[in-house]
Design brief:
The protein is mostly beta strands and about 220 residues long. Helix content is about 0%, strand content about 40%. The chain has one helix at about 150-155; strands at about 5, 20, 20-25, 25-30, 65-75, 85, 100, 110-120, 130-135, 160-165, 170, 175-180, 185, 195-200, 210-220. The longest helix has 4 residues, at about 150-155.
Length: about 220
């Protein structure tokens, strides 16, 4: 069977227009041109690269990027941290399974790109030098001020290690921003990542200090 279909004349008419088709195994698939014009207007899409005004308007999915914010409120004490201690929200019962970065990927087995992190510390006095340890799934929580020791199993869940120095004054707070990060993180068992914080330089906190972690991710699949 040949390509194209001729429409027979109807009623009293004599016109017999030809409709462009592609014959595939005896079945005609109509060939069409793309027109981007609005109601009552025509604006054909042309072959080849076009200026933005003449191209197909493509918008990325609205959930391609996500910002996750987590507050860690340390215990009501002013116990000094030594280098190598954990920073957490309890000396006896810190958040189970590690602190959670919720919904950074589209699901278990999906990958997100960590692009940047803002850290805000509620106490303007000390500099806070530490590391953000990010895991693909749940890990054993570590008590505040306890030595930062991981089990072999938890260490194998590590997907990113991000050092930070919070030393920029913001009035009542100190802040830092870590940009241009390129850490690929694939989630396991959920769409979430977990993290723990290790203190690298000794400092003395105040009771109930709050460390806010604001992490931005690009969802890749």
């Amino acid at each position: 069977m040949a390509d194209n279909v001729t429409i027979p004349a109807t009623g009293g008419g004599t016109a017999t227009p030809v409709i462009a088709t592609d014959d595939v195994g005896g079945v005609h698939y109509q060939e069409v041109k793309i027109d981007l014009g609005g109601d009552g207007a025509s604006s054909p899409l042309l072959r080849g690269q076009q200026p933005a005004a003449n191209g197909i308007p493509i918008a990325p999915p609205s959930d391609d990027t996500v910002t996750v914010s987590v507050d860690i409120t340390r215990p009501a004490d002013a116990t000094a941290y030594a280098a190598g201690d954990a920073f957490a929200n309890s000396t006896t019962a810190p958040t189970v399974n590690g602190f959670q970065l919720t919904g950074v990927a589209r699901g278990s087995g999906k990958t997100a790109l960590l692009t940047d992190i803002a850290l805000i510390y509620s106490n303007a006095t000390p500099d806070v030098v530490g590391e953000l340890w990010i895991f693909d799934s749940a890990v054993t929580a570590i008590n505040d001020n306890a030595s930062f020791n991981l089990s072999d199993a938890d260490a194998r869940k590590l997907v990113a290690l991000v050092p930070f120095v919070i030393n920029k004054s913001a009035g009542n707070n100190k802040v830092c921003h870590l940009g241009n990060l390129t850490h690929l993180c694939t989630c396991v068992g959920s769409a979430d990542l977990k993290y723990l914080i290790k203190v690298i330089q000794a400092f003395t906190p105040a009771s109930g200090d709050i460390l806010t972690v604001r992490a931005k991710f690009a969802r890749l699949d």
